[in-house]
Amino acid sequence: YITFEIVNNTQFRRDGSNLYMNYPLPLYTALLGGDLVVETLSGKVKLKVSPETKNGAKIKLSGKGLPVYKSDGKFGDLYVTYEIQVPEKLSEKEKELFGELSKLRNNG
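RESULT FIELD:
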């Protein structure tokens, strides 16, 4: 008997022909929206992030997964889950600005 062990050293998780990945989304992009580039198996894809995107939001990139077994020209999908990254090591000015935003939110 021969046993194979395949080590996944990519950012993708597989389920059949579909792929899943988590993408670190900067806080400011999540709040204000913007563009980002995601690496897929077939190359880079530019995505538009909507303002006020929530942590854990998922998007589907049709046809960006693995080939479908015994189906020529068909591919699974790639599902991207956004993980909002909270900034670290804030400067005093950043802390001050976040404090002002907090006051606006609480008094508004």
